[in-house]
Design brief:
Blueprint lengths: L4 H16 L7 E3 L1 E6 L7 H6 L3 E2 L5 E2 L4 E10 L9 E5 L13 E5 L5 E5 L5 E5 L7 E10 L27 E2 L3 E5 L2 H19 L5 H16 L5 H17 L8 E6 L11 H21 L5 E3 L2 H10 L1 H12 L3 E3 L14 H19 L5 E3 L10 H7 L4 E3 L15 E5 L5 E5 L12 H10 L8 E6 L10 H9 L8 E4 L2 H11 L5 E3 L15 H28 L5 H13 L12 H30 L4 E5 L14 E2 L3 H5 L5 E2 L5 E4 L3 E5 L5 E6 L4 E2 L9 E6 L19 E3 L4 E5 L2 E8 L2 E8 L7 E9 L4 E9 L5 E6 L2 E6 L5 H5 L3 E2 L3 E6 L2 E7 L4 E8 L5 E10 L12 E11 L3 H12 L3 E5 L7 E3 L4 E8 L7 E7 L5 E7 L9 E3 L13 E3 L2 E6 L4 E6 L9
Parallel strand pairs: 13-20, 13-21, 14-15, 16-17, 17-19, 18-22
Antiparallel strand pairs: 1-12, 2-3, 2-5, 4-11, 5-10, 6-9, 6-12, 7-8, 7-10, 18-19, 23-24, 23-45, 25-26, 26-27, 27-28, 28-29, 30-31, 30-36, 32-33, 33-34, 34-35, 35-44, 36-43, 37-38, 37-40, 39-42, 40-41, 41-44, 42-43, 46-49, 47-48, 48-53, 49-52, 50-53, 51-52
Helix pairs in contact: 1-3, 1-4, 3-4, 3-5, 3-12, 4-5, 6-7, 6-8, 7-8, 9-10, 9-15, 14-15, 14-16
Bound molecules: zinc ion.
Length: 1014
C-alpha cells in the first residue's frame, strides 16, 4: 500500500482546526453587555452586583492593570433553538497565551451565587440542555484585568506592570465576542475522539500495526464528515472511530492516576489579594465540573487557600465543603501553603504541617497523609523527619525533573532525611503539575518512568493552574477515552491517597535516596529579595521568644497566653514562606507588602515579648538580661533572665592600632588582625595557636560578580557567574567606632559599612554589614578563605545539619555550586574547626584549593545580595543589614550555639529579680526548639527538643512550676500523644530522653494539680 501517512495526519490537523472544532457551536446569538469598572481595588461582591453599568461593545478596550470590572450580561435564547443544548461563550478579550496570566473572570447569577470561572480555555456557561427557547438569561462577571507580565513575548524582561504604583492605567484588554451558542455535543465528542486518537497515533511506532489501524480509522472518519454539515455527519464519523477506541490497553500498559488539580501560586506574578480570587474562580469551576462529571476527582492543596474561601468567599466555600464531604474535592498536602523547604527554620517547617493538617482536621475531619509540593525548589534533608512527625507518610513533587545537570534515578522511592526518617516519595514522570491528558504527555510519563519492571503506576496532576481554573471538561473527556486504550497508558481519576495506597502496595521495597533533594536550578532563590529573607528569619526568632516568654509568664504569673495573636502571626509567617515569596521570585507588589507585613509582625511580637518579660521581671531596678537562646551565655541561663556577667556587660575588646596599618582585636582568646584595607588577614585561636585565615588571603572579603543568568532572573544564578568578578578591597575610611573597627567602602553606585568587633570572653569575630545597594545584575558575596582541609562541610538545616562535599568530583557535586544553610556553616579537621554564622542569609558556596605550600584552603562564602530585574525590576535596591560571625576553633557544638546566639540577641530590662527558666536541659547536645502552651488551650506545656550534634544523647529535662512531669508524654507535631512512644517519666519532676542522632521529639506535659485548688 502506498504511504499516505503524512497526508492523513495533515488533513486531520486542518479539518479539526478549521471545520470540526468551530462546529461545536454552530449557531450563535449576541448578548447585551454592560460594564462598571471599580475605581480602585476589588470591591465586595454585593457592591459589584449593585454598581451602575454602561453599555460596552465587542472590540471596546477595558480594564486598567490590576483593575476589576463588573460586566452585566443579558440576553434571550432564540425561540428556534428549542430542544438544543445552549450555553454562553464569554470572551473577555482572552489572548492565546497561558490561562492564569491574563484577564480572568468569575460568573455570578444576579443574586450573587457563583457559577464558574472564565479563562481562555474555559469560557462557557451552560444555559440549559435542552432549552425551551425564549429564556431570559442574565449573569454578572467579576473580571480582573491582571496584566500579562510577558506580553512582549520575550520572557524575563523588566516590566513596570508588577506593581499597582508603576503599572499605569492603560486598558489591558479588548472585549471579545459575548454570545449565546448552540452546543453540539456529538461534534464535541468527535473532537475528543479525534484529538485522543491523533495524539496517541503520533506517539506510536511508525512500523507498528496499531498506528496504521488508527490512521485508517481516522481517514474513514474524515471521509464521513461532510464539511458543509459537520453536525449532521459527526455521528457517522464517530462510528468509524468506535472500533479503534474500543481496543483495550495492553496488560503491561503504564497506569496513570489522574488527579484533578490547579497549582495556584499563593502569590507570584500577582499580589496576595488576587490569589484569593484566583482560588474562588478555580474552586467554582471545579465544584461545577464535579457536578457534571461523576468520575472526576479534584485535589486542592494549601489550607491557606481554603481559609481564604471561608473568610472572603463564603458562597464558594459552601460549595467546596459539600464537595469535600462527598469525597471528590480532596484537601491534600497537609500544609498551610506549598512552602519553600530549604529556608524555613525547624519550627516554621513543623508549623506548616501543624496548621495545614489542623485546618483540614477541624474543617473536614480529614487526616492528610500526603505532603504535596509539586513546585517547590528543592527539599531539605531535615524535611522527612518533620513530615513523619506530623503524621504524614508520603511526599509528592515533580520539581526535581527541572534539574539541568543530573537526571534523578527514581520516580518512586524512599527518601531518607538527616535523622534516618524515611518517607515514601513519588515524582510524577509526566514531569508537570499542569497535565492536560495529552497523548505526548502520557507517552512521556510512560517512557520516562524509571521504575518500569518493578512498578506500574504514576500520578498526573491534571489541570490548569494559577487561575487557569483547574481541570477542563475536555481533559475529562480525553481521560474517559483513555481508561483502557491500546497503545496508551491507562488513565483513571483518583485521589492522591488512593494512588499512594496502590503504589506502595505494588512496590514494597523501593530504592532509597539519602539526603537533600537538591534542585539543580533556581539556586538564586536562596538570596534574591534579601529583606524578605531577613523578615522571615527575624519573624521565626521572634516567634520563638514570644512563645517561650509567654509560656513562662503564663506558668509563673497567670499572664494571658496570647493564643489568638500567635496563631494569626504564625499563619502570616507561614504564608510568606510560600515558594515564590520567601524565595524572592514574586513581583514588586508582593515583596513591598511582605516588607511592610514583616515590620508589622516584628512590632507586634516585640510587644508580646515585652509584656511577658515585664510580667516575669516584675517592678524593680535590677538589670536583667533575658536569654531566649537554648544555651546559657554571659551568666544567664537558657530560657531565663539574670544579671549579665562582667564580661557580657563590658561588651567587646577595644581595637588597638596594628603595625603596618589597621587594627588588632585581641581578647586573650582570639587575636584578629584587620589590615589597612579593612580585611581580616589573621584570626588566631590563642587557645590552640591555630590560624583560621589561609596564608596570604584575607577574610571578611566582599566579592562582586556579574550575575545575568540565561533565564529566570530572580530564580537563577548560572555557574559561569564565578568566571569573573572582583574583590572590594578599596577602603574609603577605616576608623574605630566604640569597641569596633569601622570599615567603609564605595563601589559602583553603592556603599558598604562594616563594624568588626571581638566580644570579651569568647572566640568570635562579629561582623555587622550595612550595604546601601544600587547595583544591577550583580552578586555580592562575603568570603572567608580558611586554612582548613575539609573534605566536607556542615550546613544547618531543620533539626540538624547536612554534610556536603567540598569537592566537585562528580556532576552531582559540581551542580551544587550554591546551596542553603540556616544559621551556621562549619568546616573542620579532626580536633579543630571554624564556624561562620549569620542572622539573615541562606545562600552560600564552599570551595577548596590546594596551595603551593601543600596546604588546603577551604573558602566559605555567604551570599548577601543580588539585583535581578525580573519579575521585580527594583529587586534589592536600598539599604540592607547583615550580621555574620567568624568563630575560630569552633566545634559543631559551638556552631549550633553561635547560630542561635546570632539570631536571638539577649534583651536587657530592669526588674525585681532574676527569672529561673521554666524548662532546663542538662545536656548541650539536646537543644530546645520550642517552649509553648498546647494549641488546644488546655494549659499543658509543650516542649520540642532535638539532638543537634549528630550523635547519641541522653538528657534530663526539668520543668518548674506545677507541671505534672510524671504524666509527660511524647506527641506528634499536632501535640497528640504517640501510641507507641517510650515512657519519658524520670521521676522527681524530670523528663528523661534518649535521642538518636538528630532525633526530634515533642514532649507534652500536663498541668499539675493546682495546690491551691484554684
Ligand atoms: Zn508554584
Amino acid at each position: 500500500m502506498h504511504d499516505d501517512r503524512q497526508l492523513v495526519e495533515a488533513r486531520l490537523e486542518r479539518v479539526l482546526r478549521e471545520r470540526i472544532r468551530p462546529a461545536v457551536h454552530p449557531r450563535t446569538a449576541p448578548l447585551d453587555v454592560e460594564i462598571w469598572s471599580a475605581p480602585g481595588e476589588p470591591v465586595p461582591v454585593a457592591e459589584g452586583l449593585a454598581a451602575p453599568t454602561r453599555p460596552i461593545a465587542e472590540g471596546a478596550p477595558w480594564g486598567s492593570p490590576w483593575g476589576t470590572s463588573w460586566f452585566k450580561v443579558t440576553g434571550e435564547v432564540p425561540a428556534e433553538w428549542a430542544g438544543h443544548t445552549v450555553e454562553a461563550v464569554l470572551d473577555l478579550g482572552f489572548t492565546p497565551r497561558a490561562p492564569g496570566f491574563q484577564c480572568e473572570g468569575l460568573v455570578y447569577r444576579p443574586d450573587g451565587t457563583p457559577v464558574k470561572g472564565l479563562h481562555p480555555r474555559n469560557s462557557y456557561v451552560r444555559v440549559g440542555s435542552p432549552v425551551a427557547g425564549g429564556e431570559r438569561v442574565e449573569w454578572r462577571i467579576e473580571a480582573a484585568s491582571n496584566p500579562d507580565l510577558d506580553a512582549s513575548g520575550v520572557p524575563f524582561q523588566p516590566t513596570p506592570m508588577g506593581d499597582l504604583s508603576t503599572a499605569g492605567d492603560a486598558p489591558q484588554y479588548v472585549l471579545g465576542a459575548m454570545r449565546l451558542a448552540v452546543f453540539d455535543e456529538t461534534v464535541w465528542d468527535l473532537v475528543a475522539d479525534l484529538e485522543v486518537l491523533g495524539e496517541l497515533m503520533a506517539e506510536l511506532p511508525v512500523d507498528g500495526a496499531r498506528r496504521w489501524e488508527i490512521l485508517r480509522a481516522v481517514s474513514r472518519a474524515l471521509d464521513a464528515v461532510d464539511l458543509q454539515d459537520v453536525g449532521g455527519t459527526a455521528q457517522a464519523a464517530r462510528d468509524e472511530l468506535a472500533g479503534v477506541l474500543a481496543a483495550p490497553a495492553a496488560p503491561a500498559a503504564h497506569r496513570i492516576s489522574a488527579v484533578g488539580h490547579a497549582h495556584i501560586d499563593s502569590a507570584w506574578l500577582w499580589p496576595l489579594r488576587e490569589t484569593v480570587r484566583k482560588v474562588a474562580r478555580t474552586a467554582s469551576n471545579m465544584t461545577a465540573l464535579l457536578a457534571d462529571e461523576p468520575e472526576f476527582v479534584f485535589a486542592m492543596s494549601q489550607a491557606q487557600q481554603f481559609a481564604w474561601l471561608k473568610e472572603h468567599r463564603p458562597e464558594v466555600w459552601e460549595k467546596v465543603r459539600a464537595a469535600v464531604a462527598d469525597g471528590r474535592f480532596v484537601p491534600v498536602g497537609g500544609m498551610w501553603v506549598e512552602s519553600d523547604t530549604n529556608m524555613p527554620g525547624s519550627e516554621a517547617m513543623a508549623r506548616q504541617f501543624v496548621h495545614g493538617k489542623r485546618f483540614f482536621l477541624d474543617e473536614f475531619g480529614i487526616e492528610s497523609e500526603e505532603a504535596w509540593l509539586p513546585d517547590t525548589f528543592g527539599f531539605a534533608a531535615g524535611l522527612p523527619q518533620i513530615i513523619k512527625a506530623a503524621g504524614v507518610r508520603r511526599l509528592l513533587t515533580q520539581k526535581i525533573s527541572w534539574s539541568r545537570t543530573n537526571s534523578f534515578p527514581h520516580h518512586t522511592f524512599l527518601w531518607e532525611g538527616v535523622d534516618g526518617s524515611r518517607v515514601f516519595t513519588h515524582f510524577p514522570p509526566v514531569d508537570s503539575y499542569n497535565c492536560e491528558i495529552q497523548g505526548a504527555q502520557l507517552a512521556h510519563a510512560a517512557r520516562n518512568f524509571k521504575e518500569k519492571g518493578v512498578a506500574t503506576r504514576s500520578l498526573a496532576p491534571t489541570g490548569y493552574g494559577d487561575g487557569g481554573g483547574g481541570t477542563t471538561r475536555e481533559m475529562v473527556a480525553r481521560a474517559a477515552r483513555l481508561r483502557s486504550l491500546e497503545g496508551s497508558p491507562t488513565v483513571h481519576w483518583e485521589a492522591p491517597a488512593a494512588f499512594f495506597d496502590k503504589a506502595e502496595a505494588e512496590y514494597p521495597n523501593p530504592p532509597v535516596w539519602v539526603g537533600e533533594l537538591y534542585l539543580e536550578l533556581h539556586r538564586a532563590t536562596l538570596t534574591s529579595q534579601a529583606q524578605t529573607k531577613r523578615g522571615n528569619r527575624r519573624s521565626e526568632s521572634l516567634l520563638r521568644e514570644a512563645e517561650l516568654w509567654s509560656a513562662t509568664a503564663a506558668a509563673r504569673t497567670g499572664f494571658p497566653y496570647p493564643y489568638e495573636e500567635l496563631d494569626r502571626i504564625w499563619k502570616t509567617v507561614l504564608l510568606h514562606q510560600f515558594h515564590d515569596i520567601l524565595p524572592g521570585s514574586s513581583i514588586a507588589w508582593v515583596h513591598r507588602e511582605a516588607r511592610a507585613t514583616y515590620a508589622r509582625l516584628a512590632g507586634e511580637l516585640d510587644g508580646l515579648i515585652a509584656a511577658a518579660q515585664s510580667a516575669l521581671a516584675g517592678e524593680g531596678t535590677v538589670p536583667l538580661a533575658f536569654n531566649g537562646a537554648p544555651h546559657a551565655r554571659g551568666g544567664v541561663p537558657a530560657g531565663g533572665a539574670a544579671a549579665p556577667d562582667a564580661e557580657s556587660r563590658a561588651g567587646a575588646v577595644p581595637p588597638v592600632p596594628r603595625r603596618g596599618g589597621g587594627y588588632v582585636l585581641d581578647n586573650g582568646l582570639l587575636r584578629v588582625e584587620v589590615d589597612a584595607r579593612g580585611l581580616v588577614v589573621s584570626a588566631r585561636d590563642l587557645m590552640s595557636g591555630r590560624e583560621a585565615v589561609a596564608p596570604d588571603r584575607a577574610a571578611n572579603l566582599l566579592q562582586l560578580h556579574p550575575d545575568f543568568p540565561n533565564q529566570w532572573d530572580a530564580w537563577d544564578v548560572d555557574a559561569f557567574y564565578r568566571n569573573t568578578g572582583h574583590d572590594l578591597t578599596e577602603v574609603t575610611e577605616l576608623t574605630v567606632d566604640g569597641a569596633a573597627v569601622r570599615v567603609e567602602r564605595a563601589f559602583g553606585a553603592s556603599r558598604v559599612t562594616q563594624l568588626l568587633s571581638v566580644p570579651l570572653g569568647v572566640r568570635r569575630l562579629d561582623i555587622d554589614t550595612e550595604v546601601d545597594w544600587h547595583e544591577r545584575e550583580r552578586f555580592l558575596k562575603l568570603a572567608f578563605p580558611l586554612d582548613v582541609k575539609a573534605d566536607r562541610y556542615a550546613a544547618e538545616t531543620q533539626f540538624g545539619h547536612v554534610h556536603r562535599p567540598t569537592h566537585q568530583n562528580t556532576s552531582w557535586e559540581w551542580a551544587k555550586f550554591e546551596a542553603c544553610n540556616h544559621r551556621f556553616l562549619h568546616v573542620d579537621e579532626p580536633g579543630w574547626g571554624v564556624a561562620v554564622v549569620n542572622d539573615a542569609t541562606y545562600g552560600h558556596d564552599v570551595t577548596r584549593t590546594v596551595r603551593a605550600d601543600g596546604g588546603t584552603t577551604t573558602t566559605v562564602r555567604a551570599s548577601l545580595l543580588r539585583a535581578p530585574r525580573y519579575p521585580d525590576p527594583e529587586t534589592d535596591q536600598g539599604v540592607h543589614r547583615f550580621h555574620h560571625a567568624l568563630v575560630p576553633g569552633a566545634t559543631i557544638d559551638d556552631a549550633v550555639r553561635e547560630g542561635y546566639r546570632a539570631n536571638l540577641p539577649e534583651r536587657r530590662v530592669t526588674g525585681a529579680a532574676p527569672v529561673a527558666p521554666l524548662v532546663t536541659v542538662d545536656e548541650d547536645a539536646v537543644v530546645v526548639s520550642a517552649v509553648k502552651l498546647a494549641d488546644d488551650r488546655s494549659g499543658d506545656l509543650v516542649v520540642r527538643l532535638y539532638e543537634a550534634h549528630g550523635g547519641r544523647a541522653r538528657a534530663t529535662v526539668s520543668v518548674a512550676d506545677g507541671f505534672a512531669t510524671g504524666r509527660a508524654v511524647l506527641t506528634d507535631l499536632l501535640e497528640r500523644p504517640l501510641p507507641d512512644a517510650p515512657a519519658v517519666d524520670g521521676g522527681q519532676g524530670d523528663v528523661r530522653l534518649a535521642l538518636r542522632p538528630f532525633q526530634m521529639v515533642t514532649v507534652r506535659i500536663p498541668r499539675g494539680e493546682d495546690p491551691d485548688g484554684a
